[in-house]
Amino acid sequence: MIILGGSACGEIGPNLARLLKARYFSIEKRDFPDGEFVVKVPFDAKGKDIAIVQSTYAPHDRRLMELLFIADALSSMGAKSISAVVPYLAYMRQDRRFLDGQVVSSHVIMKLLNAAGISRLVTVQPHKEEPFRMFRGKVIPVYPVDTLIDAIAKDLREPYVLAPDKGGLGLATRAAELLGCGYAHIEKERDPVTGAVSIRNAPEQRFDGKQVLVVDDMISTGGTIALAAEFAYSRGAAEVDVAAVHLVMAGDAYDRLRKARITRIYGTNTIPFGNASVVDVSGPIADALR
User: Fold this and answer.
1) In angstroms, what CA-CA distances link 48 with 75, 79, 201?
2) Is 2-142 CATH 3.40.50.2020?
3) Which residue ranges in the chain fall short of pLDDT 70?
4) Which residues are catalytic?
């Protein structure tokens, strides 16, 4: 196998090549003055098994187009198989029509990956798996909660795990199991038009003296995490930390978490973010590729 790193593969591309004992190349990319770009594969791809590594964090559209361009180039060159390793896959949260006339963007992404010639998709902590039924090839989701929690456990003294919504209960359950502590979850509701989040239902127990760890699949605007932190402190938490797989951190999310008195932010390297303790997920991805 050859590992081909896109411009947004970060350290994961080279790490995968090392772990899999594979050859590694970086894509050649040229930007034009009008903002368009072109890519060039720097080796003969004919008859070869190739894994493209490209995360699709902001600017999402450019990174997605780069992934599609690379895959199409490999397909036209006669590659034997094309895998896409996409640590963070954009547009996956819109998995159904919330309002009449909306596009189901995750389905569109699956169709585009198919059209580009990708036969295997490896992605980390997808928001939901339902959109993958639109993909004609093999999908391997990677869930790195064990890697993330194992790396941060040494920092946690009297932990208690809190999921900021019911959807994060699976993550919270596993994190609590690994840490040997209790867990609970908040039930939130989100306004479908404004996106504003509020608590609909919450556990009754107190967190006196506990180091509460809020666990979620991603931090986007930080609103949900801040709400959970405020709740934990109101119930006596001594400290609130957050662990999320994808640190999207859109807009003023970091400032919002600081105002909510989040002590530490933990995440993975699916998206680069400098103000967090970052855990490498190349190992679980390499296991998936094997």
Assistant:
1) 11, 5, 53
2) yes
3) 188-202
4) 188
